[in-house]
Amino acid sequence: MTTLPHRVLRALDRFNAAHPWDHNAHYHRWILRQLPRRFGRALDVGCGSGDLARLLARRADEVEAIDSDPAIVARAREATPAAAPVNFTVADASAGTPAGPYDVITCVAVLHHLPFTEAVTHLRRQLAPGGTLIVVGCAREQTVGDHLLAAVAAPLNAAVGWYRSRGRTVPRPRSMTAVTRQPEMSFPEIVREARSVLPGARLRRRLFWRYTLVWRADA
């Protein structure tokens, strides 16, 4: 289904390429609003350049941050004050994470690179009683609602990119370097699989080609 003329889409693609911005970082403030002011251990899966991990460290006693890309982990370490309670590790989330339990687990734009059900099951096992799992993910567009939301997001994406790039002469470093992979699961499929593992999980479609998931473990 195409909701915008191809000529408009091509023009938007060219404009967006000239005015890039970080869709994942857009949701960092939203993530923080889901969390208590203070908590113990946190795990950030797919930490990229460490922006979210450093934000979590302002509230956490300890943050474990993992990414499979050694270069971007090195960049994250360099950008993080030595006193910050963050430990950056090169690790593949599909092969395991530093041992829990964790009071907070965040996972941004990672699950579509992994076997979804197995990954969510693993993260649930790492969560402490009363802990919170927060996912910002990508889903395959399938339903009419998906395409309509994408049509709304396209011009807004261009507007945000233009606003954020005003006066910027040096491209902003990307927060993640993983090769872009198109998601295979649709949002309804994600909802079904997530709730089979995380009963009561709250999932919602979001702007800028993302969905969110929040689940709190029983205390």
Description of the molecule:
This protein is 36% helix and 23% strand. The chain has helices spanning 6-18, 28-33, 51-57, 70-78, 116-126, 144-165, 187-197; strands at 39-45, 60-67, 86-90, 102-108, 127-137, 202-206, 210-216. Residues 15-21 and 169-173 have low confidence and may be disordered. It has a seven-stranded mixed beta sheet with strand order 3-2-1-4-5-7-6. It is globular, with a radius of gyration of 18 Å. It has a domain at 32-139 and 180-216: Vaccinia Virus protein VP39 (Rossmann fold, 3-Layer(aba) Sandwich), CATH 3.40.50.
Write a short abstract of this structure.
The chain is built from seven helices and seven strands; from the N terminus they run ααβαβαββαβααββ.
Q: Uncertain regions: pLDDT < 50 for 5+ in a row?
A: 15-21, 169-173
The fourth-level CATH homologous superfamily of the domain at 32-139 and 180-216 is Vaccinia Virus protein VP39
Individual helix count: 7
Terminal CA distance: 44 Å
Count the beta strands: 7
Please state the CA-atom Rg, rounded to the nearest Å. 18 Å
* Share of helical residues: 25-40%
Give the CATH level 1 class of the domain at 32-139 and 180-216: Alpha Beta
Structural class by SSE content: alpha/beta
Largest β-sheet summary? 7 strands, mixed
Order of helices and strands: HHEHEHEEHEHHEE
SS strand fraction: 15-25%
